[in-house]
Amino acid sequence: MARARGGGLAAWVVAVAAAWVLWAAAVAGARSPAGRVHRHLKRLNKPAVKSIQSPDGDIIDCVHISHQPAFDHPLLKNHTIQFRPAYHPEGLYDDAKSSIGSNSGGEKPILQMWHRNGRCPAGTVPIRRTRKDDLLRASSMRRYGRKHHTAPNPLSVDPNMLSEGGHQHAIAYVEGDKYYGAKATINVWEPKIQQANEFSLSQLWILGGSFGEDLNSIEAGWQVSPDLYGDNNTRLFTYWTSDAYQATGCYNILCSGFIQINSEIAMGASIFPISNYAGSQYDISILIWKDPKEGNWWMQFGKEYVLGYWPSFLFSYLADSASMIEWGGEVVNSEPDGTHTSTQMGSGHFPEEGFGKASYFKNIQVVDSSNQLSAPKGVGTFTEQSNCYDVQNGNNGDWGTYFYYGGPGKNSNCP
């Protein structure tokens, strides 16, 4: 009997030890880099009603509208989705000729590449699936989907701040008033990027607060970013922050914040087609405005796609209004080999080359306190090194307030 009891005890000890080893291995696995990547992907990629393989290699997941990443935010747990803005801005331009896509031969609508292989059903939102490789390219998982710098400050008099962190800009801007939104029609290109850790983008910025540690920003436009997306495609993007890009906010919907209501357009997906030098020109139109009734900041893409909104509680200064609006281009200049990058801004050509060759923003407008869209007053321009990237603004009947911008980066006058 004693031997039997001893054998039973030994078996129990072996079983407990084995269970402990398995538990320890599971804990170690969860804490391992591979385990952390798996958990992060599970957080980002919500269960899909339907998935669409895009010709560019992306997978677009159609996620039920109430399961999107926004609702991971603790303050959005019991949020009632606002399916339409209470008010649109008054005085929208008639963009029939130009807002979605245009060339000298007439309108050509811009689509996203994944549309070739299907659409998301009503009641879902299209979300670009994040893959393991996307996370592994980031400097850290905590920084994945986040910018590493502040917005351009055209009012800075400190020359050391002019290209802070190697970022260079060619922008138009207005400041000195209260702004409740902005609009632009943006020429779409596919600029060449010299190094994978650099990017080129063209966007508008809605800014509130100072350029210190409390800057609020809402941003939207197009970008080429090999680091973020793993390719050189031109993609629609948004960004937000309430603390100068430190701990809050992200690109697209890679964190909780922006609430998408549209089933047609995916943040971060490829824009198609793209403008050609001395050939067909294509534009996108972006409008961001603060709903005067609910206070949320809404985004519209083109004439018909109201994409969704940033709840006003995400922000401090922008909970009231913006104090500066910027439109234009930005690149990262990492100075490979100690010389200026050859990463292009816009079309990669200087403004003086004009239509069909240089990139442009046209019909730039602001939304005032009476929810009226109007031409901006007192537009300034700003660039750190005009021999590398430049900006030239103007005004006419067809294009309203506009500017050409961009450049090739490294050249004989920009060594």
Automatic annotation (TrEMBL):
Keywords: Signal. Gene3D superfamilies: Outer-capsid protein sigma 3, large lobe. It comes from the Eukaryota. Residues 161-415 form the Neprosin PEP catalytic domain. InterPro entries: Glutamic_endopeptidase (IPR053168), Neprosin (IPR004314), Neprosin_propep (IPR025521). Residues 1-30 form the signal peptide. This is Neprosin PEP catalytic domain-containing protein. The lineage of its organism: Eukaryota, Viridiplantae, Streptophyta, Embryophyta, Tracheophyta.
